[in-house]
Amino acid sequence: MVWQGILGIFVFLGVAWLFSENRSGVQKRDIVLGLALQIGLAVVITQFPLIRNAFQSLSKGMEVLKRSTQVGTQFVFGYLGGGAVPFNVIPESGSSTFIFALQALPTIMVVSALSMLLFHWGVLPAIVRLFSKALQRTLRIGGALGVVAASKVLLGNLEAPLLVRPYLKNFSRCELFTVMTCGMATTAASVMALYTSILEGTVSNPIAHILTASIISIPAAITLSRILIPHEGAMTSGSLVAPYRFSNWMDAVSRGTSDGLTIFLHVMAMLIVVLALVSLLNALLAILPSLGGEAITMQRILGYVMAPVTWLMGIPWAEASTAGKLLGTKTVLNEVVAFLELSKIPRSELSAHSALIMTYALCGFANFSAIGIIIGGIGSMVPERRDEIVALGIKSVFAGTLATCMSGTIIGILTHLSGEVLR
After folding, report:
1. Gap between the Cα atoms of 134 and 227, Å rounded
2. Mean pLDDT of 225-247
3. Looking at the domain assignment, is residue 89 inside a domain?
4. How far apart are CA 364 and CA 153, in angstroms?
5. What is the DSSP code string of 132-166?
6. For residues 381 and 176, is the Cβ–Cβ distance under 8 A?
7. What is the pLDDT of residues 259-307, one digit of tens each?
8. Number of domains in the chain
9. Does some domain include residue 255?
10. Per residue in 355-410, pLDDT tens?
11. Among 23, 2, 48, 191, residue whose Cα is nearest residue 108
């Protein structure tokens, strides 16, 4: 319900204020501006026909991208990569020829290569500069921070800070924390195609929702960062710095492919290990007496803990525990595992509206494993501030989670008021 979501927004902001390092230093104007921009962006993207249709068309482009990637996987892996199967598959047996590692994950490498190519051609830098200026004027942030925040809509946790690497050492504590929170509250273009593949059949036009989530979570991340650690002193000025030097377009594609391969292998290994650890933990928990006639599992525990949070996002209490399991899984493990779990939940347990809200709430890197990536990456760029980055790690996960929850809440309110889901 609408009142439920409105209450949730105030609670999320209030919780951030309670944990603020300097409550008296929190600027009410910053909160109002940030919340207004987040709601405004959500309204424009989901309710204005012209923008809405543009986002809808992304699904067609994603389908072309998937088919093009499949051409490569079929040539290299044959039927394992999606090619014609040289034997009969018995549908009743429950067997499937879909192999996640060889038919879903390779898109990461293609998107990574395309991203580098667009960077070489100047397309991505132009988008970053445009969005950066908009953030600077609306949220009153410095130029260098604006570049990082704008680039986080499409780039990863390590690529975005590289764009302003010379300025990082001069960032205030608040600005440094905002960089980390923006990384936790958003995703990256390199994995958007993977999320889309997982969520097909779960929400309509998933790529539109994923991109929207990354955009509207940026103002929330900046606002919550300023509440938890109010800014003091002058803003750090600065502009985009080219972190890559390519001799030609083929060099850009080669670099992007190499980076994509690293992500591909990391995601594949991560899924194997994380799912194995969850299974192992559940096996240990099975030793305990059952609760309510069902075995105790990590998912059930997380569901009970996170259920109040998902209820505040506008999800009915009957579905809050199921949604809470997803939010807890994403926080403790990662968003890929959570999306995989979301795709398996029947509509009898989680309605289409609730599934849409959770898509936004899960669309971010706010999990414990991401802390290590940020510490290692940004810490190597500004080694003199590594201890400070380490100290802010857990707090950035907390802020990033609140930011994505706010995005899910706002989308839930808008879709409830309009009586439809963005298609």
Report:
1. 21
2. 82
3. no
4. 11
5. HHHHHHHH---HHHHHHHHHTTTS-TTHHHHTTGG
6. no
7. 888 888 888 887 788 778 888 988 998 888 887 777 888 778 888 889 9
8. 1
9. yes
10. 999 999 999 999 887 888 888 888 888 889 889 999 999 999 999 999 999 999 99
11. 191
Tokens matching residue 38? 């987040």
In degrees rounded to 5, what are phi and psi of residue 294?
Answer: -125, 150
State both tokens at 232: 């003091």
Closest listed residue to residue 155, CA positions, set 177, 187, 202, 201: 187
Cβ-contact 190, 365 below 8 angstroms: no
Written as six digits, the tokens of 63 are 């389908």
Residue with tokens 């009915």: 316
Residue 105: closest CA among 251, 253, 271: 271
Can you tell me the distance from the alpha carbon of 128 to that of 112, in angstroms, rounded to the nearest whole number?
Answer: 17
90 inside domain: no
Give the residue numbers spanning the domain of 65. 2-81+98-418
pLDDT at 422 over 70: no
Query: Does some domain include residue 347?
Result: yes
> Radius of gyration over alpha carbons of the chain, in Å?
21
The first and second tokens of residue 30, run together, are 């910053």
Predicted model pTM: 0.87
> How far is it, in rounded angstroms, from Cα 159 to Cα 155?
6
Cα–Cα dist 281/278, whole Å? 5
What count of other Cβ atoms lies within 10 Å of the Cβ of residue 331?
22
**139 alpha carbon, distance to own chain's centre:** 21
